[in-house]
Amino acid sequence: MAQNARSRALAGFAEGTHRVLVATDVAARGIHVDGVDIVVHAGLPSDPKTYQHRGGRTARAGAHGADVLVSLPEERGLVRALLRAAGSDAQPEPADADDEVVMRLAGPPAPKIPPQQRSTPTQSSGVRVPTQARSSGAPRRRGADRQWEAPASRGGSPHRGSDQPRRAGRRPAGPQD
């Protein structure tokens, strides 16, 4: 999204024209908007500070609000570690799609689609849809490699500025023997 479109979206949210703002971590810090009643984390934040800044949108000048973190059951340990590292005393509560709180936040659940009506890779328009479980039987864990004690390194490519090839078998440009 272009910067001017982001600015218009944020201004519309701040003015109350837009009731919902979907944002990345970019909007977690340094942006002040009054009247935010709820923050929904759709996925685990990358670190405790991001979690605090996202959720802090609801607690401006003594105001109260809801801070909801949506996660998978197999991410329970990661959620507890995140809350502990963020200094939060919140207690995770499991919720089903038909829970009253979930219904108030998200509306009724979408109807279930029988397996024979689901898209297959050949029916989709360029998007691969998984049609069977992982061969190992283990669910894929989002964020399983997160380390909240230290931020991830953002170092550049080890090949940047080097004459070394990036892949084995590739030769640097220049005269050949």
From TrEMBL:
Chain positions covered by the region annotation Disordered: 85-177
InterPro entries associated with the record? DEAD_box_RNA_helicase, Helicase_C-like, P-loop_NTPase
> Its GO CC terms?
cytosol
Keyword Ligase in annotation: no
Q: Which regions are flagged for Polar residues bias? A: 116-126
Indicate whether Protein biosynthesis appears among the record's keywords: no
Single GO MF descriptor: RNA helicase activity
Q: Which UniProt keywords apply?
A: ATP-binding, Helicase, Hydrolase, Nucleotide-binding
Q: Which residues form the Helicase C-terminal domain?
A: 1-101
- One Pfam family matching this protein: Helicase_C
What family name appears in the similarity comment?
Belongs to the DEAD box helicase family.
Name listed for the protein in its UniProt record = DEAD/DEAH box helicase
